[in-house]
Amino acid sequence: MTQRTIVIVSAGVSEPSSSRLLADRLAQKTIDLLAAKDVSANVRTIELRSLAVEIARATVTGVPGKGLREAIERLGGADAVIAATPVYKAGVAGLFTSFIDVLGNDLLIAKPVALTATGGSARHALVPDEQMRPLFAFMRTLTIPTAVYAASEDWSDRALGARIDRAAVELAALIASGVTGAIVQGAWHGYQHDFAGRARAEGADPEFGAIDFDSDLMRLATGGSSSPPTAENDNG
Questions:
Q1: d(CA 159, CA 6)
Q2: Taking burial as the number of CB atoms within 10 A of a residue's CB, which of 13, 62, 117, 229 is the most buried?
Q3: Are 82 and 8 in contact (CB under 8 A)?
Q4: Domains in the chain: boundaries
Q5: Among the residues of the chain, which ranges form H helices?
Q6: Is the pTM of this model over 0.90?
Q7: Topology (CATH) of 2-190
């Protein structure tokens, strides 16, 4: 049975978090649908509230701490992502966008992503589509058509379950199809790999996206000359 990993990225700050609860419901439904296709899946979670200090520090210094590096590695190895955020003041939580800001642009190429959000009012129902969808379009993900938003009054409404079911069908279909590997292996050279991202599929050439430490920029960054050493000036 094929094994897949779904990673939940939750920006909820309360305990328990409604954003996490919504993501968990979608993840479980997706796992059930995958099992029917003989695809085994497990769920891993990145709780951004526990990484808030490291995210802020990385935003300023550009250097992620140990916990944040591990979270980025986990995300890079995911077969699919469920993005979950609360809505504050008609917008996505700053903690969530700050986390996305520290990711390499090529980390999530062609990964299936489900968008979920929670808020206190139905007035914010378009936040996932208006704010989260363009963000993940920039990251070049395969964002599923149905975004799921839950206001306070939605939790007892059967319509929320129907939206979750619809989103799970879409997410499971993309995961089971293996579309990420097909896209990445076939088009890796066509992307801009700013941070030698880990989005490439298993079996792809490990040199794709590797950093060129002999470039002019990298020689300058390490205190050397912008020109490669010649036989006359090479003291090594």
A1: 24
A2: 117
A3: yes
A4: 2-190
A5: 18-36, 52-61, 66-76, 94-101, 127, 133-138, 158-177, 179-187, 216-221
A6: no
A7: Rossmann fold (3.40.50)
